[in-house]
Amino acid sequence: MVDGWIADACEAAAARGVTGVIDFQYGDAVEDWERRSAESPPAVRVAAAVYPSRLDAAVERGLRTGAELGVGGGLVRVGPLKLFTDGSLNTRTALCRDPYPGLAGTDGSHGIEETSPGELVRLMRRAAAHGIEPAVHAIGDRANTVALDAFEAVRCRGRIEHAQLLSPEDLPRFARLGVTAGVQPRHATDDRDVADRHWAGRTERAFAYADLLAAGARLEFGSDAPVSPLDPWLAIASAVSRTDDERPPWHPEQRLSVPDALVAAARGRRLIRVGDPADLVVVDVDPLDADTGTLRTMPVHATMTDGRWTHGPY
Questions:
Q1: Rounded to an integer, what distance in angstroms lies between the CA atom of residue 77 and that of residue 67?
Q2: What is the pLDDT of residues 53-74, one digit of tens each?
Q3: What confidence score (pLDDT) does residue 313 get?
Q4: Do the beta carbons of residue 204 and residue 259 sit within 8 Å?
Q5: Are residues 226 and 171 in contact, defined by beta-carbon separation less than 8 angstroms?
Q6: Overall pTM surpassing 0.90 (yes/no)
Q7: Do 31 and 61 form a contact (C-beta atoms < 8 A)?
Q8: pLDDT band for position 314 (cuts 50, 70, 90)
Q9: What burial letters (b/e) apply to 107-123, b meaning 16+ CB within 10 Å?
Q10: Rounded Cα–Cα distance for residues 206 and 202 (Å)
């Protein structure tokens, strides 16, 4: 039954122009997607993440990030190793350099450390030695520094997921270390009020997408579904407008242009070249001419994944 619901969700995502996802669901995503792909190919590409509890098993099997799984015709592949440095903004557990207002001098006043720096490096080094790239959850500025320090120590490719609050000196390190910033623009608009409260006086460097891009970082948009809807157009609209209601844009200096937002939503791919996978979305309105309201509700005429229509005229 669950597999049927997931197949339906993949089809719904394809109807909004989604051609690929990273599955960070707790559990054994590799085994789950091997089973599902044996039944039928999914409507989207899937990268199945590995968690530390299953890292040894993945190494023993010789799994590597990007390697094909199951019989899904290349649509299902091994994803990254998911690691955590801290908690979240809303729970005041994101690891920050400065204490949360009203919590100074108390336990947890700066958030929590989910994984020690030494253990983070150990896990990343073991994974990278066997071809598994890390994806490190980091929200607070201290957590992002810890994550970037680990990438610098290991010298491997990978991602930082969220990168919500950044120290200015860390901005250029993403590009220098080749670390992708996997960000969720809906969080910037959904959490603006709680950020103003918990990160008072620091929000000019929160959800700093324009600064990251200016520093040469590779941005990739995601949804963090089910925290936010799995709809790339909502992310694009939030990145472009920095508001999702009648209020003025929140830190408008961090807005992205529509072309830059489209590139980030397409996993950093700016141009289509001969030989690229045929992952295409046909829309009924030119996004470059659309206002933010139209971007949010962008009518998707058809979606093609790997040369196969997954939504529309097929």
A1: 5
A2: 999 999 999 999 999 998 768 9
A3: 74
A4: no
A5: no
A6: yes
A7: no
A8: low
A9: eeebbbbbbeeeebbeb
A10: 7
